[in-house]
Amino acid sequence: MKKLYLGKIDRAYNKSRDIPFWAGCFPGTDDYSYDESVLMSYINSGRKYTKKNQLLVENIARYYFLPKLAIELNCLHNVNYSCKFWEPVLFNWLYLVTACAWMHFLNVREFTASHKDECFEVYVFNKKQEWRFVDTFDFYQRGMSSSLFHHWLLTRITDREMPASWKRKAQEFDIAPAIQDESIKDYRSRRCIGIKGLGDTGQIILSIILALKPAGKTDEDNFICPVLEQPDENLLKTMPESFISIIEEIIRETMPLSFNEYFYRYNKRAKSKRYTKGKIRLTGPVNHFHEQMKYYLGHALMHGEKVICTQHGGAYGQLQSLVGAILEYNYYGFFSWGWKKHDQYKGRIYDLPSPFLQKFSDRHKFKDNKLIFVSGDINPLHSTVFQSGPVNEELFLYGKEKKRFISLLDKNILKQVLFRPYPHTTGSLNELQYIKKTYKDIAVCEGDLNSKILKSRLVVIDQPMTTLLIVISANIPFIGFWDKSLWKMCQQAEPLFEELEKAGVIFGNAAAAADKVNEIWPGIEKWWQQSDIQAIRKEWCFRFARKKKHWWKEWLSILWKI
């Protein structure tokens, strides 16, 4: 009988017979490959409707489950906090767990429908698991980034959808102990905190300025999208009843202790701080995983303060679907690195220069002869949230394109290659091991990446993320290649990416990129300094990677007007 693996494959796995349900079966194993033989035998529904599903999950998480949980948690803790408070506290975890469950639900339904008459021995999670996640960070690390968690989640869904011909085979697992983010010990509550590229001294100075600034006029609601105090029951009709039933259970089984048992600890500290209606609170991505900071934001919003989030990486204003957008654009405002609108996402966007990118401004020098290949992450566990980029079987093809690029380089150029694997994250496929199987002698780029690319001959990137912004800001010659059908750009960004493509800087596949590298290698500096390439680069910088020596003048000007 064929085995269907929902979780990590084991030594009994036979790739000529058995079926790994998804790419998440391979992280942490030593014998995975990028062969077509391991690709899934179903079409990934999540890939077809990324934007649609992201909006669907966002709506049901924000307008049904969040107000519902707010009512329950208010009763539990004997408080009467509005959903303005609970939005930053709950929403990141709530969106991630709902999105992950919905992605798996779609794939399970599709797979069972097309294989209902076949016989499978299905490897399932044996018992009901009490995860007891400490906080959102623990949920992300021990949950979203864990093969065991996804195995458990798929078991919960498959148990309800399993055809009669399938045989259930339970497995026992040991769950890793809780992980608590060390940053949780940082209890500072400043008016400016977590800004990318701005050190402690700069943030303290900006905090003092914001504290001295008189409170401004306030709107009725400092959120871009409305915050509902009662759940919108109509949203239940947008998803199957069977999914609503299972996600209701999963939400309660995965709720971090920071929202129930440890609520008093975080809330007491946050309540002791002073909040002033109309004052500004400027933040980095602290509403993602920093639990104490989220409680500060909750009280600030409930007291009528204006929370402004700031850009902290690539893809903002560019990728068609981005989780960061739904987490950060909904507050009073968002400081971007030059762009004004991001497709379908609502937000009050302030286009400003980046303090982070200014540090790299035109700093490139031709000091060595190295080609640094900066590789993107191959993490199936993190690709379950309806964000632009490869998912499931596409991740294997993405990995093969990396090797294909290397294989097509001229032998003399290959000697100069430094391969920079993405910093290994829990749930990632081991791409360095995969590359080393064929290219044992390839040199690895270790240590601080940014200092090395600033003196390299050429940088190659295979995804449009933060490194793209750095190389363009620093005026580093680069070649990019990625599948445009996977890394879809929003309508505002697409024209400029097309200009880079026409100029022969970015390509849709590894073969074309390798051909270009072979062509320009003898005269890279002359090629890069062509007037058309430099004109596009400067326009791209202004639109998506804006930098200015005295960037703080524009920031202060905007902040004083708000």
Topology, pairings included?
Layout: E1 2-5, E2 19-20, H1 45-48, H2 50-77, H3 83-114, E3 120-125, H4 136-144, H5 147-161, E4 167-171, E5 192-193, H6 200-212, H7 241-254, H8 263-271, E6 280-283, H9 286-289, H10 291-302, E7 306-310, H11 323-328, E8 333-336, E9 349-351, H12 355-358, E10 371-374, H13 393-407, H14 411-414, E11 417-420, H15 431-438, E12 443-444, H16 449-453, E13 458-461, H17 466-474, E14 478-481, H18 494-502, E15 506-507, H19 510-520, H20 524-528, H21 531-544, H22 551-561
How would you describe this protein?
There is one protein chain. The protein is of the alpha/beta class and 562 residues long. 43% of the residues lie in helices and 10% in strands. The protein has 22 helices and 15 strands. Helix 3 (83-114) crosses helix 7 (241-254) and helix 5 runs antiparallel to helix 7 (241-254).
